[in-house]
Write a structure and sequence with these properties.
Layout: E1 6-10, H1 14-26, E2 30-34, H2 37-46, E3 51-55, H3 63-71, H4 76-79, E4 83-87, H5 95-101, E5 105-108, H6 113-124
């Protein structure tokens, strides 16, 4: 079997985090989590991550700020990682703003878990 891909879930809600984690683990992904923007950046710098599920409304540094910081990384593996925004406030942002920040794609909350699996597979296989 191919080495499992690592997904970082940036989410401050334990309920959403645990549900998302279980669903992706069933798909054989290795899951890491971060509850705030500083944790996201630390994890990105310390290990290989294949995709980030980024809640836009996380504490310390929000998802947009985190995404911009990741995109500025001098490490091309980090700077080019797919980032999928997850937000209950998608109406507060245009796709243009997401793209400007460097977000690859987005999923609205409440999460449709079939769509989640489909989008993750689209970017990381």
């Amino acid at each position: 079997m191919a080495e499992s891909k690592t997904i970082l879930i940036a989410e401050d809600s334990s309920v959403i985090l645990n549900l998302t984690k279980k669903i992706l683990e069933l798909q054989k992904y290795h899951i890491l989590s971060a509850k705030n923007g500083n944790e996201v950046i630390k994890q990105m710098e310390s290990q290989a991550i294949d995709c980030v599920l980024m809640d836009i409304n996380i504490p310390v540094k929000d998802g947009m700020e985190c995404t911009r910081e990741i995109r500025r990384s001098s490490n091309p593996q980090v700077a080019q990682v797919p980032i999928i925004a997850i937000t209950g406030n998608a109406n507060n942002y245009s796709m243009e703003q997401f793209r400007e920040a460097g977000i690859t794609d987005y999923l609205p909350k409440p999460l449709d878990f079939d769509a989640l699996v489909r989008v993750v597979k689209q970017y990381v296989g």
